[in-house]
Specification:
Helix content is 48%, strand content 7%. It is mainly α. Pfam families: Myb_DNA-bind_3 (PF12776).
């Protein structure tokens, strides 16, 4: 099957992510995280560039940052749904070989009574849950429980005003003339 689907609603071709491409994406994100190309829960531009090049080289598919971010959003939503439903219930265990959650039937019944949406996870597989835990688990720890809920998105208020950023400007012709006449180099505008 071709990884590109024509006729997407946005007018652009949609990317079909195969299991191998998903696996490569997750492995690449973990690698980028390990080498320091992630800070404050977000990946740096160089990480996206490396993944774009890797997907192109390995699968012959041209993607962009938006494709990666959209796929990552989908993967993260599935992961968070599992994590929110299963919580810290120690009687439900992840099995990496079957790629499913396992628990006693009575435990499942109790969970489904409280959270009916958990029923599908009795049989549904989720690929790479253990690696997704490495990738997204710390993000979840940093956020308060109220922010983990999909139904109540909250933005943090700034405690301090934003720091002023210095803006660099190109030297004017007058500054260049002065520099040439005095044999000095002007590195920055005096403003």
């Amino acid at each position: 099957m071709s990884p590109i689907k024509p006729g997407h609603a946005s007018g652009q071709d949609a990317i079909f992510w195969s299991n191998r491409m998903n696996e490569y994406l997750i492995d690449s994100l973990l690698h980028q995280q390990a080498i320091g190309n992630r800070g404050e829960g977000k990946f740096f531009s160089v990480a996206y560039d490396n993944i774009i090049n890797g997907v192109g080289d390995r699968f012959g598919v041209v993607i962009n940052r938006t494709n990666i971010k959209n796929r990552l959003k989908y993967i993260k939503e599935s992961f968070n749904e599992c994590k929110n439903l299963m919580g810290e219930d120690s009687s439900i265990k992840w099995n990496s070989e079957s790629r499913r959650f396992h628990a006693d039937l009575n435990v499942w019944r109790e969970l489904v009574e409280r959270k009916p949406e958990a029923k599908k996870w009795m049989t549904k597989t989720i690929n790479h849950y253990d690696r997704l835990m490495e990738l997204f688990g710390k993000d979840r720890e940093k956020r308060p429980a109220a922010e983990n809920s999909k139904s109540s998105p909250k933005k943090k208020a700034r405690k301090e005003p934003p720091k002023e950023r210095l803006q660099r400007t190109a030297p004017t012709s007058l500054e260049l003339n002065v520099a040439e006449n005095s044999n000095q180099t002007v590195n920055e505008s005096p403003c």
